[in-house]
Amino acid sequence: MQQCYFCQNNIEEIDFKDSAMLLRFMSEMYKIKSRKKTGLCARHQKRLATAVKRARYMALIPYTNL
Ligand SMILES: [Zn+2]
Q1: Of 14, 17, 32, 59, which is least packed with CB atoms within 10 Å of its CB?
Q2: In the predicted model, what is the mean pLDDT of residues 31-56?
Q3: Distance from Cα 64 to the centre of ligand 1, integer Å
Q4: Topology (CATH) of 5-57
Q5: Structure pTM?
């Protein structure tokens, strides 16, 4: 996975309500994977972080289990 998933699919805004999609970019510990692993561009990696934050706030995905 080298090319940015969102750029590839022409997704500008990441839908934070799509928790299944967000989880694809998160580890089993519910941490956002590093850019190296997600293959996202800097712009979308940042948007992903924002979307995850919102999804957590809306209790759509769990908070990081430390
Ligand atoms: Zn991108």
Answers
A1: 59
A2: 96
A3: 24
A4: 30s Ribosomal Protein S18 (4.10.640)
A5: 0.89
